[in-house]
Automatic annotation (TrEMBL):
InterPro entries: Ig-like_dom (IPR007110), Ig-like_dom_sf (IPR036179), Ig-like_fold (IPR013783), Ig_sub (IPR003599), Ig_V-set (IPR013106), Myelin_P0-rel (IPR000920)
Residues spanning the membrane: 140-161
Cell location: Membrane
Signal peptide: 1-18
Protein name (database record): Sodium channel subunit beta-4
A Gene Ontology BP annotation from the UniProt entry: regulation of ventricular cardiac muscle cell membrane repolarization
SMART domains tied to this protein: IG
Source organism of this protein record: Nipponia nippon (Crested ibis)
Amino acid sequence: LPGLHVFAIAFALEVSVGKTNTVMALNNSDVLLPCTFTTCIGFQDLVFTWYFNSTEMIYHGKIKSKASEPVLVGRNPRVEFVGSTTGKDNNISIVLKNVEFSDAGKYTCHVKNAKEKHAQHNATIFLTVVQKMVETDNTVTLIIVGVVGGLIGLLILFMLIKRVVLFIIKKTQDGK
C-alpha cells in the first residue's frame, strides 16, 4: 500500500482563488488578486509564486512555518503582498497597482510545500481590464421572465377553473 500513501499526500495541499476565477479591473486602478491555501498536515519552508500568463514571475515568497509571515524573495515593483499566514486563512493574495490594458490575462498562484514531500498545487484567476465599468441592464430579461411567468400562471389558473367546472357539472349530474 505505499502507492496509496503517496496518493493521499498528493491531495493534501489545496490552493484557491475564491468563488469566481475572473476579476474585472478599471484601467489605472489597483486590483486584488486573491489566493489562499490549505494543508491538512501543516507547512514548512513553503514556497509560493505568482505568474502572469504562465511564464512571467511577478511575485515570489517563502514562508518558514505557521508562526512566521512570508518573506519576499523577488517581485515586480507594481505588485504588493497583502496576505497573512499567521492567521487561520493562509492568505497569499497580492495587489497589482496601476493596472493597464496589457495586464489583462491569466494569473497563477503556485504553492509548493516541503513538509508534504514537495507537494505542489496552483489556482488560476483571469483579469480583464476595462476603460469604464458598465452596469448591465436586465430590463429585457425581467420583461421576458415576467411574461413567461404570467403565461404559466394563466395556464394553471385555466386548468384549475376547468377542473372546478367539471367537478360542479359531475356533482350536478350525480344529484339528478
